[in-house]
Amino acid sequence: MHISRKTPEVCVPRLVGLMAVDARETARARGLLLTTPDRPEPPLAVVDYVVRQYPQPGAEVPRDSMVYVWFDFGPGEGGGGVHEPRIPRPPRGGPQRELDEPGDPSMVLSSP
């Protein structure tokens, strides 16, 4: 479907799965604006992938409408969260498993 510049309504493209830079270009080509509620500076997002969008793909919206997208890191790009430092630190020692001493009479199996 070809959309001319005179068409007041445009079809929202599928942006989920695209890298941020490609999502911005795809939206711009349709005459739509992109915004990211989960990022303070969307122009700086480059290698993140779109994981959600609103309005949904296929929706008819006026030209120059805002499309909201949410990003996630790509495979191997992190996103696992902050692991350190843990404050307060966990107590030393931790749970210990009780093991029987070698030669413990309670562990000797008697044969019938």
What is the element layout, followed by pairings?
Elements: E1 9-11, H1 20-29, E2 33-35, E3 49-54, E4 60-62, E5 66-72
Please provide a written account of the structure.
The strands form two sheets. Strands 2-5-3 form a three-stranded mixed beta sheet. A two-stranded antiparallel ribbon has the order 1-4. The protein is built from one helix and five strands; from the N terminus they run E-H-E-E-E-E. With 112 residues, it is mainly beta.
What is the makeup of the main sheet? 3 strands, mixed
Number of strands: 5
**Level-2 CATH architecture of the domain at 9-72:** 2-Layer Sandwich
Strand numbers in spatial order across the main sheet: 2-5-3
Radius of gyration: 28 Å
Task: Determine and state the CATH class of the domain at 9-72.
Answer: Alpha Beta
Q: State the helical fraction.
A: under 10%
Helix segment tally: 1
Instruction: Tell me the distance between the termini.
Output: 85 Å
**Percent of residues in beta strands:** 15-25%
Mean pLDDT: 74
Organism: Streptomyces indiaensis
Region (Disordered): 77-112
InterPro entries: PASTA_dom (IPR005543)
Protein name: PASTA domain-containing protein
